[in-house]
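haha ok so turns out i had the wrong file open the whole time. this is the CORRECT one, sorry everyone. sequence first:
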Amino acid sequence: MRYCVVPFLMLIFAAVAHAGGIDGVIYEAGQELEGASVTFVAQTVTTDAEGRFALENVPPGDRILRIIHPDGKQVKQASVFVLSGERTPFTFDFSAETLTLGEVVVYGEPVIEATPGKQTMQISEIRRMTGGANDPLRALQILPGITSPRGFSAELNIRGGSSDDNSYYFDRVPLSYPYHFGGLATTVNSAAIESLDVHAGGFGAEFGNAQAVIDINASQPERERVALTADLNMIMSEVMLESPIGSNGAFYIAGRRSYADLIIPHLVDIPELTQFPRFWDYQAAFDYYLTPEQRLHFGAFSARDSMEINITEDFALDDDEDEIDPEFLGKAHYIGGFDTQSITLDSSFGDRLILQSTLSHTRDVLDLEIGSGSYYLLIDPSSYILREDAEYDIHARHKIQAGGSIGAGNFRITSYFPRMPSEEEMIEQQGRESIGGEEYNGPFGDDQVNIESDISQSFTFTEAYLQDRIAVTDWLHVKPGIRLSYFDLTGDTMVDPRASLSIRIPNGAEVRAAWGVYHQTPTPDQFLPGWGNPDVRASKAIHYVLELERDVLHNSANIKLAGYYKDLRDLVTGHPTDIYRNQGSGHAQGLEMLLKYNPSESFLGWLSYSYSESRRKNNPDVPERLYIFDQTHIATVSISYRPTPNWELGLRWNYATGVPIAPSDEILAGLREPSTHRLDLRFTRTFHVGKHPLQAYLDVLNAYNYRGSFSTSTEAQEFVEYEEDFAMPIIPYIGASMKF
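then structure:
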């Protein structure tokens, strides 16, 4: 750990001259551009609705600005000469060939992002999405190949994979608990988010241990004035306070809490529900600029879910409920969540080297008890992670990126609880029950195996990566890289070579391709003694991705076509004697299309479609079959339109093929849940209370009340049609937000 303090000792590079500032406006085709990102060293700001931005504490002299278009694809660098102690005006137009402002010159075309599978969404776009209830992760379901088979859930299945195949990051730190109650809402307040980067596959060496990555970029605190944002809706209340502290510091604190537990018990008497389900979360950050080239960032974020019921002999879910087993009688509770703290130092040494150093601590908690202690499960892992990322511009067309992580922690599990089935097994059993099969009791069945354990297992891991971004010519950019990882509890040494390229063709389109190896370590319940098999190792996937992207309709629209193939090997699957083995295999493949149409500030439209297949083979002795998350067709249309400055109307329509019911069952293998389609509507009205905007919004979810049904014929029964309510009813979702 000795070298981890080196970045913090580099403060000797402090500037002594009087810093100045930059007041700028970003345009596109002469129109103010909202959502553009402007970076100077450790400062990153986003342009407002008028295209304006401000940078503070900029040392005098010739300074480089990095400007990224809201679409995430156009990256420019510009030089501006800053006068000592003064504010320097700056303008930039993405559509202009050259700049006419005397002190500003655009550098040669920098290294562009050659990252297939990546899609960036600004928080300003997410807030305009219909059907997302202002939830940042739920809004991502508008993108091709991303869906949630659970209706209103925010949980994501990406390119035919399980949600367990995804890694989430917030503010450069792993987000281990991204959803409240398994998908009801994201555990990060949208007010604390600047943008989201979705890496659906074929991503670079900077990320590992996942098949897909959702990188949530935190917003920076307001440095000009005190600001208060509040949102009140049907599920929760949200508030965010941000303020400058002196001339070099700023902070924000954001929090949310559900309040059904405060209201519903007064309206409905449910004696068995001793604590109605509730959740809360908070995010806090403090930034302090040690010098214009160095920013110290402190972060903290946390979330909790909890509920409690009292199961009595009279407790029944329906009239046909059998007598309850005595061992389930008594109180049952659930508590889940996490606590994370971090400190980051962003440093710039000259105009070429940027270094980011983050030290974080995370503690997760899962506390589950049934029958007043008859069954209990307490999982309490804790970890410390040091992450370093460096970026060095050899010149404008050649960039080296390197970094890695060192982590150490402890898994602690105390239990007397049945071994939990895999997500796939649970969904299959629920599917069988839904068509008249045996009742599903989760892990509590006739063949349940109760595990009594008190495990405390320390662990360490090491990760390192190196990648090179090169503009070989004006039309060819390449990004080779490699990632090395080691995890001591499984003994895995993982070597993941990766490469991607981007080719600009004469008609203005860009072709991208990527290939890479992606290892994923097993989950703790798969390798810890007593729960799993200590001999299991990391699974392996090989990604192949090809994309074509082009701006059309005079740059008012962008279309992206993609094809992918994932070769899956050494998957960890169930085994009758060893519990788990690396014996599974499979593949996922698909074609995707995304069209974004944004001709003006008043109109934003999205159209996405994916055609895919996901198949698995649990062991070498069984035939390959559809994976439980296979969905052949997924299509989404989303439109947001502002007919006047104070009104905004939105709609989203989605269609998805139903997932297989029980693909590993020989009799039911061809049966799927019904295909679903849903229309959501949104109406937003902006009022002004003095100088403060107040937005009132109404989301109508499942506006035409679609209900699902399916029919099947099996060897076990004659043709039977089952009518089931697979979709949620019409749900009005009302809320209001205000910024002071």
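The longest helix spans residues 423-434.
again sry for the mixup
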